[in-house]
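Tutorial, part two.
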Amino acid sequence: MVSARDVVRDLMVLDSAVYAAVAATETPALDRGLRRLSSAADHSKLSLAAAGLLALRPGRTRRAAVLGVFAVGLASAGANLVVKQLIRRPRPDRLATASSAERHVRMPSSPSLPSGHTAAAVAFAAVTGSALPALAFPLGTLACAVGYSRVHTGVHYPGDVAAGALIGIASAAAVTAGANHWAPRPPCR
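Running the prediction step on this input gives:
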């Protein structure tokens, strides 16, 4: 019989192996762009900037922006103030891999699991994309790129990104449900 501990151990080994494979793959054409993207997503700057632009338009576009900001807040709090403090997974050891220093961003001092950047980006993309379907694909693509950039720049394992995405989806669902309960959408005209 396979125990839960064995499954977790195997998942951690797999997670480390995927991280090492990404770190060992030379991608000089991508390094600068992914490093910039990762830094641009610090403190949810990309999502908040998009929300600011969307809020300039009244009606459902402004509502989507506001709900997106609430989702970012909930996802960030859940990831950074709750889950990181409960699990306290160490950050990857970039010196133990063959990764190029050209791709690195500053190593955060917080625990690794989950990726708060990913949680916030996915939460914003999910809420806003649901309300504004024309933006679903570009925002979803950006959220995926932010998540990958965190692995590429050496500050997260892929499992951290996956956990962050799950928190983002859950946060988006909670904000959407709350908004529909407390402030239902006005009928379309």
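Residues 4-182 form a domain with the Vanadium-containing Chloroperoxidase; domain 1 fold (CATH 1.20.144.10). In part three we will examine how such features are distributed along the chain.
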